Amino acid sequence: MGEVYRARDSRLQRDVALKVLPELLAADPERLVRFEREARLLAALSHPNIATIHGLDESSGVRALVLELVEGPTLQERLQQGPLALDEALRIAVQLVDALESAHATGIIHRDLKPSNIKLRPDGAVKVLDFGLAKALEPVHTSSDAVDSPTLTAVGATRQGTILGTAAYMSPEQARGHAVDKRADIWAFGCVLYEMLSGRRAFAGKDVSETLAFVIMKEPDWTALPVDTPTSIRRLLRRALEKDHRRRLADVSDVRLELEEAGHNEPDVHVAGVVSPLRRRERLMWILAVAVLSLLAIAAGAWALRPDPQPAEMRVDIATPSVTDPTSFAISPDGQKIVFAATIDGGSQLWLRYLNSQSAQPLPGTEDARLPFWSPDGRSIGFGADAQLKRIDLDGASARGLASAPVFLGGTWNQAGDIVFVPNANVGVFRVSASGGEVVSASRPEVGQAHHSPSFLPDGRHFFVYVTGAAASRGIHVAELGKDGTRRLLDADTGGLYGPGDVVLFTRRNTAFAQRLDRSRMEVVGEAVPVAQNVEVRPFANSLHAGLSASAAGPVLYRVGQVAPREPIQFAWFDRSGSEMLKVGNPLPMVLNAALAPDEQRIAAFLTGDIWMLDMRRAGAFSRFTFDATVEFTAIWSPDGTRLAVSSNRAGQYDLYEKSATGAGTEKELLVTEQHKDATDWSPDGAFLLYRSFDPRRAYDILALRLEDGKSFPLVQTDADERNAQFSPDGKWIAYQSNESGRFEIWIQPFSAPGNERRGKWQISARGGGQVRWNRNGRELYYLSPDGRLMAAPIRFTADGNAVEPSTPQVLFRWTGTDLGRQGTALAPYAVSKDGQRFLYGTTKVQPHTSPLTMILNWRRP
Q1: Phi-psi region for residue 489, left (φ > 0), alpha (ψ -120 to 50) or beta?
Q2: Does 119 share its domain with 34?
Q3: Active site residue 317
C-alpha cells in the first residue's frame, strides 16, 4: 500500500510517520484514489487506540500521509518471543476492542487487522495502524460484485491480481470474495487473540492457497490454548471464529462483554468432595449416563479424525505485460514464484515475480529468452537465448551459457544437477551438467521422428519427451537417463508435465487434461480429466508448445489463448525503399528456408515437414514437392535451376540429398554422416555445396561438400556458432554470420578448397546482423539488423583481390512486424533479385498477447 518513513515536522517540531506511494505506483489513478480514501477515513477517526492522521500533503507530484509516529514494537515482533500471559493478552484485547468499537461506530471497518498492524507503546498503550484497506460500512446484504470483493484480480480493480487483506487473518467470506461487514473485523480479532494466547496462528498453511483453504474449511487447534484459559475466553474465540458469519458475534460490544466476564478471573471450577451413598437406581442412571457420554466421546473422536474436506478450488488471474511468446513461463517447484517472458519498450526478457509481491522484476541478461524452467531448489532458472542454453541464479549472479542451443526447444532440471534439453530442431535430447561441461545424448529420435519439450519426473531419472512422427508413435513418451529408446505414454498435441498427485498434464485441441500416472509401471490409468479450456498452444520450429506449467507444491499455471495472435505470412516483391510492388502466392501459416530459383519465377519453401513449390507464372498457390513421411527441411537451387539439394532426416539425422526440380525420378544421396546438416548455398560453378553441420558441443560449423567425389571439408569451425554461409557470385568468397563476439555479426572470408587455402576474414556489420545475401554484381551485401532493418553494405576488394575493404552499411528499410532478436533468424526468409533492386520476402505481424496467467489453487486431481 505504501512506504513509511520516520520524518521531522519542522514547523511543529515533532517526529511523524510519513507514508508515501512507491514511485512505480505514483501514476496509478486507482492507487491514488485508495490513498486519498485512507486519508479521509483516518481523519474521521479520533481515538486513543487508533494512530492519528495529521494531514495529507503533496509536493512535486508526490502525495504523502502525515501520521502519528508510534514508538515501540508491533505485536508481531512481540509474538516472536512466544505467547503472551493471559492478563497481558486480555489487556491488549480490551484496547483493540475499544479501537474497533470506535471505528465501527463511525461506519468504518478495518478489513486487515493483524499483529503487524498493532503497535505496543512502551507505556502499555495499544495503537491500531493502517486503515488503508478500510471501507465505509455498507448494508449487510450488499452485492458481491468484483469491485467490492476483497479478492480482486486482474479482471477487477487491482491489476496485479493481489488479495486485499492477509490470508491468515481473513474471514471465510472475505477469502471467497463476498461482501464483508464488521463481522470480518471480529473474525480477525479472534485470530489475533488466539495467536496471543497460543503463540501460533489459528490458520497457518504452508502457502497462501493452503492458508485460505484452512480458513474456509478447517477449525483451529483448540488444544493449543493454555489449559488455564477461562471458559468465557474459549467461548469468545469459538463465537468470533465461527465460519458462518450469520452465527458469528454480530457486534464488537458482544466481544467486550465476554472480555469483561473473563476479567473477573473466574477459573474453571471442578468441585471435589465426599459423595453420599447413592441408591441403586441412581447409580444405574449414572452408569448409563457415563456409557452414553463415552459413546458420544468415541463418535466425536471419530468425527475429529475424519479426513479434512478438500478445500475449494480457486482460480486467480495474474496480469503480465504484453508478450510475443505467451508459452514462455514457469512456476517454481514450491509454487511461490513465477518467471515469464514479457515485452517492454520493444525488447523481450524474463521477469520474476514472487507471489507474495505486487510487482515483477526484470532479470538482467535474459534478453530474448524463451521457455524458462526452474532448478529443483527454486534458486536458479534455465532458458534458451543467444543460441545457447543458459542459466541465471537469483542471488544476483550474471546469466551464463552452458551449452550450444541454436533453436532451443525446452529443458528440465533434476536434483542431481543434470539438465536435459533440446538444442535444435529434430536432433534429439541432450544432457549437460547444470554447471556446464560435456554434452551427451539423452534420447535419439528414430527415423521420421523428432523430440522436444523434455520434463523430469520426481525420481530425476525418467523424463517425459514429446515425439513427433507417424500417428502410431506421436505423443508423449517416457525416456530414462542412460538408456536407449523411449516408451509411448499417450497421444497429445504438446509435451507432458508431471503434476502433483502423480498425474501427467498435457493438451489436446487447446484443452489441458490430467491423467493419473502409475510410476511403477510408467503407464497412465483411468480417464483423462479436463483441467482448463482454450489453453494457448504456439507453433515453433516444427513443434508445438503449450502455455501450461505445474508445481510439485500443487498450483497449476496456464495462459488462455487469443484468436489469431500471428497473421499469416504473405510473400511479396519490394523495392529498395521498402514499398510493396507485387504480392506473390497465397498467405501461409508458417514458412522457413524459402529459396528463389535462378530464373526468379519459382520458390521452394519448407512448410509442415515437406518442401513446397510455388511457380509464380501460374496460379498463386504452393504445391507439395516432397511426399514421404520424413521431414525435408531445406531446399537449395542448383545454379542452372534444374536440381534441388534438400536436407532430410530419413536416416535418423538430417543428411543431404539431390532431387530433380521437376519432382520426377529418385533422389540421389549426397552426404550421410552422424551429424545433422542442411545446405545453405550452391557454388556458381555447381561444384560445391555449402552446408552447416550441428555439433551439440560446438553449435553450428560451416563446411563445404565437393560434389565430384562426395568429400567434405571445414571452412569455419570454432566454439562459436557459425551459420547461413553464402557464395559470392564469382565463388571466391563466402559471407556468413557468427556470434564469436557475443552477438551475431556478418563476416567475409575467402573460399578455399584443401591445398589452396587463403587466409583472413573481415567483419562487415557493426551492430549485429544475420541472414546475409549477395548482390549478383558481387559489390554489395545485404543482411538484417537485430531490429529487422534491411541493411546494404558496399563491398570493395583490394587491387590484388586478396582482401576486403568494408564500407559503412546503409539502412534500406525496416521489415514491418519482423524482429530478428539476438538469434539472427528472421520470421520469414528473403531473396534478392539479380539486379539488386527488388527483394522477395514474407511479411507477418505478431500481435501482442495480453491474456493474463491463470493460477489454479487447490486443484482437484483425477
Answers
A1: alpha
A2: no
A3: no
